[in-house]
Amino acid sequence: DDWYVFDMSSPGAFTVDLNSSGNLTSGDYYNITVYDSNMEALSFRKGSGVEWREGDLAFDVMAPTSGLYYIEVADSTYHTTESYNLSVVQATSTLYDYETEVNNLPNSTADIMTFGKGMYGSLLSSSDVDYYKLDITTPGVINLDFLSNLKGGSSSSSNIWNVELYSSESFYDPIAESSGGTDPFSFEVAAADTTLDYYVAVKTATYYRDDPYVVTATFTEGVEGYETEDNNNSGQADTIVLGDTITGSISDRYDDDWYVFDMSSPGAFTVDLNSSGNLTSGDYYNITVYDSNM
Asked: Model confidence at 116, in pLDDT bands (50, 70, 90)?
């Protein structure tokens, strides 16, 4: 293993970049791990270092304090004796906020996320979870946008990333979630209860990938026209105004969304559901209408 040390004179973000001039076949030849002075792993990437083939083997890391930081370069899946070039550059200005490891416990180590500013992070392993905390002071709609493949690597439609939104009411059942590959994806959900804390979780879905990502939260005041969780039974049903549309999502296999409306007189009514998701052919929704006697 090759070890390197450098001194950060002040807290801030820095970029680690490894390039190899060897005529390597496609595959992972280098494991790069960044540690703080306590030997706590902060970030990890693997690859060949051949930019034209697999994209730039580079990533940003946040140094929360000044002091010494270490880089370990080790064999990955394959071995090569070809030389590599390694550089570390401290950022003079940043477009994003940065995750700080360890942030895998929502109620104690979650990084604070600012609405409107992207959070740059990466998963250290397939079991790593990155938690971010959002501060909600008024009811409104949270929109989450997720972007990966920042360094121009290979694209994939496989289920790589899972992004979930939780409230402090339960860390076991997400209010909403979405997953995807290297293409950007997003979802939105109403946050009606300002007494709760809200958390974003980024984790591995089916396939692990160490690429950096950026997740951005934006907020729009007001929840009119959106379902609010929990609305899992008739007693918690959201109100629908006849003629209006309400936006919702089924967060998991156990989530039911209930709605109630008032018919002022006997007559026929039409229920219409549309989904904008790129779903394959099949049945995704069961819709049942009940009277007041259930």
From this structure: very high
φ, ψ at 189 (rounded to 5°): -155, 145
The whole-angstrom separation of Cα 232 and Cα 206 is: 27
Q: Is residue 115 packed enough to be buried (19+ CB in 10 Å), middle (13-18) or exposed (0-12)?
A: middle
The first and second tokens of residue 60, run together, are 């940003």
Per-residue pLDDT reduced to its tens digit, 214-252: 999 999 999 888 888 878 899 989 899 898 898 888 877
∠215-219-224 over CA atoms, to 5°?
135
173: number of Cβ within 10 Å: 17
Strands 111-112 and 129-134: parallel
Phi, psi of 120 (to 5 degrees): -90, 130
Report the C-alpha gap between 115 and 219 in whole angstroms.
7
Query: Tokens at residue 239, please?
Result: 């109100």
Of 121, 144, 134, nearest in space to 203 by CA = 121
Q: Please check whether residue 252 is in contact with residue 231, taking contact to mean a CB–CB distance below 8 angstroms.
A: no
Q: How many CB atoms lie within 10 A of CB 41?
A: 16
Residues 70, 5: contact at Cβ < 8 Å?
yes
CA 73, 77, 80, 85: dihedral to nearest 10 degrees?
-30
Query: CA 194, CA 207: separation in Å to the nearest integer?
Result: 35
Q: Are 234 and 168 in contact (CB under 8 A)?
A: no
